[in-house]
Structure formats: structure tokens, C-alpha cells
Write a structure and sequence with these properties.
Length: 490
């Protein structure tokens, strides 16, 4: 009888013991907090957070100002060994990114089929499309029509890399859509282009700090040699033609075509010179709450400078830093300049396609005359000006921290932190709130690696994530209570 009980207990513990033997000597269970920490031989430390003893799940944030990313305290010790087993997430530690890339064959040269084209699209299989998918398909069809009528059909064709096909099919639903994903773009110019190392660290940080997939579209001939679905199981690599090659416009408009035609319903756009911290997944549900059929626009985080000639923060900057219209018929500013790291849902597709086509194919569309007179456009320019033209005002507080250096202060959490850039006389007289979800301008992979090492093992998560007016705030609710007049959202 006693032997049978011990055998039952052993069978119950066996999966956990198997997982723990994959660790290198130092596996530690911390029972006073609700998380399991695993220190592996490659220096990775993983932590899984949850708020009660029910099965682990992603917490939904139904109210816009309530969030508290990270580990939640729990007084009771965890007793359920199956629950403990489910908390173990063994994976790779932070790795130095490879500096080498290989030349790749383009899928259109191999006669592979794209996700989309200007040919008539197949409808959903009966029963596979919920109402949201039907709406998404309708919005996508509008965007396709705009591009195809403008002679931009080659830019709608995105191809899943064959090495990532299995990973893609695991992520995509029966309706042919990825529900939520980060979307990034890259175009390496050589086998040693540093953008490959920057993007590698971005993808590593997403796999460590997020539960969401990432779609990276390649717009060049080179792909880092270490990218594969075994190393990055939640990454999908796609290929597409570059706006620079097809239209002789800025390469950065590939960001907008990636948002439009990778078939992601709700997305967050990231650049190669970014990496992410804990908590960013929170914005996916918020994006879905804010970009709707009644507000069909992308939302940008506020920029660290206003670029407004009437604002005090631009005094002393070279003239090119200020945005001035060439025409008096141009729209008036409806909010401060935003940074081109937008969130969106499918409801924004028609807006994005229309304004992007104005820039990429002005002779085949009907852009406003003031847009033509302005001359050269970048992706960030048209996103801001188009939103002003629609007279809309939604803007995220700054979740894309201007430099990785600022994360040193985030890790220290000084009682008197000092202020970061952002104060202006017109839009944000107390400065802009900084939400430490991502780092931008991370152009030095070695320095980024050192910072990410510090964040990688920071499992206590005592840090407040919002800095505003020389004060730390634990969550958006506290920030909103402190300053109800803020023009940006969390």
C-alpha cells in the first residue's frame, strides 16, 4: 500500500524531475513568490508570473489604465506539482548575435505563391471565419484594391520563407490570420551588416520577454545565418519586394507595407534597432481596444521632440529638426509629433493603404496638393501628417525609450530620477511619460547585449515601469490619477 502511494507520487513528480534535470546544477524553486526560477547552463533565468493557483493564463486588461507587468506576490506556497511543472520554461539564454549573413534566393524567382496578390482572393472556408475575421478580410480587400489600382501590386506580395513554413502554420488560424504579433522589417546590404545583429537581439528579447510571435520581413538579399525556427520558434521570416526598388521612395515605407500585408490582425511595429522589456504584451489588448471600427487609425507613441515650430523644446535645434509645411493648405496639428512605432488593428488598413499610396504612387492616386508640394516623405512623416489630416488625437505615452542608456536608470530606480527629454510649452508642459517597455536607437549590439544581460535575469520585477515628472509610477492607473490632463494613454 505504502509502496503504491510512493509510486503514484513518483509518477506525479517525474515530469518535473525530467525538466529539472535539464538544468545545470542550480534549479531553484521559490515558493513564497508565485514563480519558478530556473538557472540554466547558458545563464538564462526564466520566470513565469501569475496571480492565483489556477492554471496559468494570460491576464486580460479590460480597463485601459490598469496594468502591472511582472511577478505578483503570493503569500501561499505552491503545492501543486503539476502547476509547478507548467511553470518551467526552459529555453535559450541570451546569445551574442552572429555578425554573418548568407545570400538568399527570392521566392518570386522560385515561383512560390505569396500570401496575397492582386488576383481575386479566396474566401474563408465555411465556418472558419468569425465576424472579426470577416471584418478583417473586408478591410484587407480595401487596402489591396487601393494598392492594386495604384499599380503597386508587386508590393502586396509577401512570401513565407520555406524554413519557417511549419512555424507559420502553427501561428496562423483557420481564417488565415495571425491574431496578434510584433511586425518588423529589415534589408541587409551585406553579409556583415550590423542591422542583422540588431534584429537578432530584438527577436531574442521578444522570445524571452513576450509570449507573442514576431513576423520579420526581409527586403534584401541577405539573411542572418543563425535564423531558423528551432532557435526562434515564434518567429516567421517573410520576404517581399522593397518600396525603394519598386518606387524609388524611402526604404522605410516597407514598414507600412509589412503592417498591411502580413495578415496580422493586431500588431505592434518595431524597428531593427529596438529590443523589448517585460510588459509590452500589455499593449496588444490596448491596441485592440483603441483602434476600432469607430476609430480606424494606427496609434503612435509620442516622440521625444515635438518638431513643432511653436513649441519651446525646439529652440536651438537645427532647422531640419522642425517640421514645417510647404503649403498653407496643409492640415493643422491635432497632437504632438509621434514616433513611427505604431500599434494597429485591421480597421486601420484602409487608412494606411490610402495615405501610403499617395506617397508611393502620386501619379496613379489623387493625393492632396499640399502633400505633393511637400516633396520627399518618410514613413514617420506621413503617419503623423495623415493623422493630423483626419483630426484625430489618440497617442501612446512613450513606450519606446529614446536610448538604451535610459534603462540603466530603470534598473537602478533612483528615488530622484531626474527628467528625460520631452518637456515642451505646448503639448506636454511637465514632460512626457516614459514607459520602459522597449529601447530604441539600440545600434550598438555589444552594448545592447550587456544591458539585456542585466534585464534577462531580473526576475524580482520590483521596478516601476513609468517615469513622469521626476516620479516613478507602478501602473497607468497611478499615472492617470496623478495627472488626469495627460494627452497620452498607457
Amino acid at each position: 500500500m505504502i509502496l503504491a502511494q510512493y509510486m503514484d507520487l513518483l509518477l506525479m513528480l517525474l515530469p518535473l524531475l525530467i525538466s529539472m534535470t535539464e538544468c545545470a546544477q542550480n534549479c531553484r524553486l521559490t515558493r513564497n513568490n508565485v514563480f519558478l526560477q530556473v538557472s540554466t547552463s547558458n545563464s538564462q533565468t526564466e520566470a513565469v508570473s501569475f496571480e492565483d493557483s489556477s492554471p496559468i493564463r494570460e491576464r486580460r486588461h479590460d480597463e485601459g489604465w490598469h496594468f502591472r507587468p511582472g511577478i505578483q506576490k503570493q503569500a501561499q506556497a505552491v503545492q501543486d506539482t503539476l502547476l509547478l511543472q507548467s511553470m518551467v520554461r526552459l529555453g535559450r539564454g541570451l546569445e551574442h548575435p552572429s555578425a554573418t549573413a548568407n545570400r538568399t534566393n527570392m521566392p518570386w524567382d522560385l515561383h512560390q505563391a505569396p500570401l496575397l496578390s492582386c488576383s481575386p482572393q479566396k474566401p474563408c472556408v465555411t465556418g472558419s471565419c468569425a465576424a472579426s475575421s470577416l471584418e478583417a478580410n473586408a478591410d484587407l480587400q480595401q487596402a489591396l484594391k487601393i494598392f492594386c489600382n495604384a499599380g503597386l501590386g508587386s508590393l502586396v506580395e509577401f512570401y513565407v520563407d520555406s524554413k519557417f513554413a511549419d512555424a507559420y502554420h502553427k501561428m496562423v488560424g483557420a481564417d488565415g490570420w495571425i491574431d496578434q504579433a510584433f511586425v518588423a522589417y529589415v534589408g541587409l546590404k551585406s553579409s556583415s551588416d550590423s542591422h542583422g545583429a540588431q534584429m537578432d537581439l530584438l527577436v531574442q528579447s521578444i522570445h524571452h520577454f513576450s509570449s507573442k510571435p514576431v513576423v520579420v520581413t526581409n527586403f534584401g538579399e541577405w539573411v542572418p545565418s543563425t535564423w531558423n525556427s528551432k532557435r526562434f520558434p515564434r518567429m516567421v521570416l517573410m520576404h517581399a519586394r522593397s518600396t525603394e526598388d519598386v518606387t524609388q521612395k524611402s526604404f522605410n515605407f516597407n514598414k507600412l507595407t509589412s503592417m498591411l500585408f502580413t495578415k496580422v490582425k493586431t500588431g505592434i511595429s518595431l524597428d531593427s534597432d529596438q529590443w523589448v522589456n517585460r510588459g509590452l504584451d500589455y499593449l496588444f489588448d490596448r491596441a485592440a481596444q483603441e483602434t476600432t471600427s469607430s476609430y480606424p487609425y494606427p496609434i503612435l507613441p509620442v516622440h521625444w521632440m515635438s518638431r513643432d515650430p511653436k513649441s519651446s523644446d525646439m529652440e536651438g535645434y537645427p532647422e531640419g529638426y522642425v517640421w514645417n509645411f510647404q503649403s498653407t493648405d496643409a492640415p493643422q496639428r491635432s497632437m504632438r509629433w509621434g514616433h513611427a512605432h505604431p500599434t494597429w488593428t485591421h480597421f486601420a488598413f484602409p487608412f494606411l493603404a490610402r495615405w501610403t499610396s499617395y506617397v508611393l504612387a502620386p501619379d496613379r492616386t489623387s493625393p492632396p496638393q499640399w502633400l505633393v508640394e511637400q516633396g520627399w516623405w518618410e514613413d514617420e512623416d506621413i503617419l503623423n501628417v495623415a493623422l493630423w489630416a483626419e483630426n484625430v488625437t489618440k497617442q501612446w505615452c512613450k513606450f519606446d525609450i529614446p536610448t538604451p542608456d535610459d534603462f540603466e536608470m530603470f534598473l537602478r530606480q533612483p528615488a530622484v530620477p531626474g527628467s528625460l527629454e520631452g518637456t515642451d510649452s505646448k503639448w506636454y508642459p511637465q514632460g512626457i511619460p516614459y514607459v520602459f517597455f522597449t529601447a530604441h536607437a539600440a545600434k550598438d549590439p555589444e552594448y545592447s547585449y550587456k544591458l539585456l544581460e542585466k534585464l534577462w535575469g531580473n526576475t524580482t520585477i520590483k521596478n516601476s515601469v513609468i517615469l513622469y515628472a521626476n516620479k516613478w509610477f507602478a501602473d497607468g492607473q497611478a499615472l492617470k490619477k496623478y495627472d488626469p490632463s495627460l494627452r497620452c494613454m498607457v
